[in-house]
Structure formats: C-alpha cells, structure tokens
Amino acid sequence: MGVVIVGAGQAGLAVSHELTALGVEHTVLERGRVASTWRGRWDSFCLVTPNWTVQLPGGRYDGADPHGYMPRDDIVAHLERYARSFSAPVREGVEVRSIKRGPEPASDGFILGTSEGEIRTRTVVLTTGAYQKPHRPRGADDFPGRVQVIDAEHYRNAEALAQGAVLIVGSGQTGCQLAEELHEAGRDVYLACGRAPWVPRRLGDHDITHWIEATGFFDQPRAALPSPQARLVANQQVTGHGGGHDLNYRVLRAMGVTLLGRFQGVSGGRVMFADDLAQSVAFGDARYTAFRKLVMDTCATTGITPPDMPDPAPFDASAPDSLPIDRLGAVIFTSGFRPDFASWVHIPGAFDELGFPIERDGASTVAPGLFFCGVHYMRKRKSSLLIGVGEDAAIVARAVAASREAATGRNSYLKK
Ligand SMILES: Cc1cc2nc3c(=O)[nH]c(=O)nc-3n(C[C@H](O)[C@H](O)[C@H](O)COP(=O)(O)OP(=O)(O)OC[C@H]3O[C@@H](n4cnc5c(N)ncnc54)[C@H](O)[C@@H]3O)c2cc1C
Fold first, then answer.
1. How far away, in angstroms, is 73 Cα from ligand 1 center?
2. Phi, psi of 174 (to 5 degrees)
3. Which backbone phi and psi does 312 adopt, to 5 degrees?
4. CA atoms of 2 and 406, how far apart (whole Å)
5. Which of 72, 91, 385 to mutate to test the pocket of ligand 1 (most atoms within 8 A of CB)?
6. Which end of the chain offers a freer environment for a tag, N or C, measured as fewer CB atoms within 10 Å?
7. What is the pLDDT of residues 359-410, one digit of tens each?
C-alpha cells in the first residue's frame, strides 16, 4: 500500500492535502468520522482562537466572521468541506489497533493491525491527535459510586450531569470554561486549581491571538521550553464563549466559583486539597508578566503604541483545604492529557519517557518511514493548532515524498 495516514482530524487532512498536491498516493484511515475529536467536544464548545487562525493549507477560514469563535458544529462542517475540497482519500470507520515493524524493517516497513485486517506499508504518518489520553491525578478513582465522575471529554452539558454541586479538577482552558458554564447553569462549582497561564482576551484594539502571533510567541520552538515536562503545561486561560472574554482565577472567583488548591485525593468522606492556591495564582501571574514583556519589547522594536497591561490585581489565596463528598453530585477531571502512542505503536525506543515521539521535523529518528504531525509542540508552540499545523504538514509531506522517492526510485514528487 502507498502512504497511510492514521487520523482524519485537521492534522491528517492537512498532510493529505499536501501529499495530494505532491501527487503522492496515500490513504487516510479514520476510526470514526472526519473531525471526530471536534465532534466529541461539549455542546456549547467554541474555538478559543479566532476564526482567522484556521489556516489549513487550501482550507483557510473564508467566512464572514474572521474575528468570531466558531462553535463546534461549524468547525466540523469546515473540516468536512476541507476534506471534500480535494477529495481526501479518507476511509472512515477503520481503526488502526497496532503498528509494528515488519520482519525486515528496511524492506518490509510496517504492519498495521486494523479493524479491517492487516495492512503493510513502508510509510506511515500518525496524526492521531494532539491531546490523546486524559490524565487523571492519583486518587481520582476513590470517589464513592454515587458521585458521577467523568473526564472532560465526556461532558456534554449541565442538564446531562448528575444533580448537585460539581467539583472540577484542573483549571486550564477547559476547566475554566466548564466552571463558568456550570456556574451560569445555577450549580455550586468548586475548581481545584493547578498551574496555568492566563491572558486577557483583548489588548488594545486586538484579540490576544493577534499579539501571540505578532510577538513570535506562536513560533517559539520546542527547544525554548525550560524542560520536556513544560510541554504538558496547560493552555492559557481565556474563552471564546459569548463573543470572547477574560476567564481566569480572578474572574471565576468574582462570579462565585470556589477556588481550591490542587486535588489531593479522597479521605474520611472528604475531598482533600493542597494549600497551594497562592502558588498556582503566582504561576499564572508570572506567565502574564513574561508575556507582557514580550508585548512591550515587540512594541518597542516595531514602533507600535503599547497596549495597557496593568499588574494583576492582589489576590486573597485563602481556600478550604477539604470538602465533604456528600456535597458533590459530580466530579469532572480536566487535568490535562498525555500522549498515547506507546500503547499501540510497538516500536521500541520510538517514544520518550513522556510518551512523545522521538522525531525531527515530524520524521521519527528511530524508525525511518514513520512520521508524525499535529503533535503538541512538535516543531513550535503552534504545531498542534489550527494556525500552525499546516506549516508542519507541508514539511512532513515533503519528507514523506522524499522517503517515497528513495523507496520507489521515482523522483518526480518533489519537482512539483
Ligand atoms: C478542549 C480543546 C480546545 C481546543 N481549542 C482550540 C482552538 O480554539 N484553536 C486551536 O487552534 N486549537 C484548539 N485545540 C487544539 C487542537 O486544535 C485540537 O486538539 C485538534 O483537535 C487537534 O487536531 P488533530 O488533527 O491533531 O487531532 P484530532 O482532532 O484529535 O484528530 C485525530 C483523529 O485521529 C483519529 N484516530 C485516533 N487514533 C486512531 C487510530 N488508532 N486509528 C484510526 N483513527 C484514529 C481520531 O478519531 C481523530 O479523528 C483545542 C484542544 C482541546 C483539547
């Protein structure tokens, strides 16, 4: 078989678009339907980045509201149109359950165990998602059965959640958005907070995303991160809901959400929290201050009038250290994601200790012929985002084409 792309989200479709442009024969295997992950997000979900950031190759946003934040179903419709626009060779409903190398890796390539039988190919591109396996902290499974416990990906809306107060564990973008939604639905909401950056929705006349792009923040390479673990830090707290607004610890507390320290587990009929809310708030404030410097430096070098970016307001970080479980109807874990390649891609040494592929520009440095795209922070901060995945897809597609030329002796792809 020609090249196999696994996953028909934005990353898989973008690579498919670029391979189509190069004339490289390929198939996209998708276990669900095109844009399955977006389809699975909660009912009121909308983009956090404005519509103009949808910059897929051959599939840029061209609607009437570039500064709006598309709701879930419009994102799905956009990706469906994108797939149709170049007749992406997607086979929906085919799950790849395992990948291993053939007996003679150099000549046999890879063997894919799929829901429709075995497939052999010398070139595989894994585009199975930036956010693969929900991560739950220790103690998450100790709640009594009468409390509904779910991961954020299973949250649909307030009505579908068990009655009563809600504890949300994890305070990245998703945790903050669900806290706001449930509070507005009349629930008592408790938010166990961790370390997450925050940004104001708007700075001066622009959405924050304009500044993230203008400062070069989106283009920061992975090497600029302080540690490999920094890849797992939450995305910035902010929302596109209701036209977009600030949504951080100060906003949530002002609206009536109870902020708590990190979730520590369940003990003696109570849920326990660390005494660390002050540190979590300080972490977010430090990220804001660092970003402010980037904005000010950019304004100084470009001659742009700097926007107003005041110091964060003082914050009283006192918080309860525990809650009676009896008070809760539901717990939602929104405590991040981990890569999940290693559980089904049986190629020794291909993934690091956090589970990220060991690659350069998307090409595995361990298994020639194995490629990735859409991985969080693969090349740059924007690698897994709608604004950045297209740049990576073009690079990966050219590397795939080069490897096909080497494998088949054909040398016409890269002349295009
Ligand atoms: C809550 C949330 C909000 C986000 N908001 C934004 C935003 O506002 N702006 C932005 O730019 N980015 C946003 N992102 C980040 C990113 O754009 C999305 O995560 C996006 O879905 C990533 O696209 P992808 O194609 O890499 O992965 P996915 O969309 O996850 O697509 C992967 C596909 O692979 C399929 N698949 C997986 N495993 C297999 C297998 N073994 N066999 C066959 N098929 C398989 C899945 O069914 C899925 O269709 C958000 C992420 C999250 C979690």
1. 14
2. -65, -50
3. -60, 145
4. 13
5. 385
6. C
7. 999 999 999 999 999 999 999 999 999 999 999 999 999 999 999 888 777 7
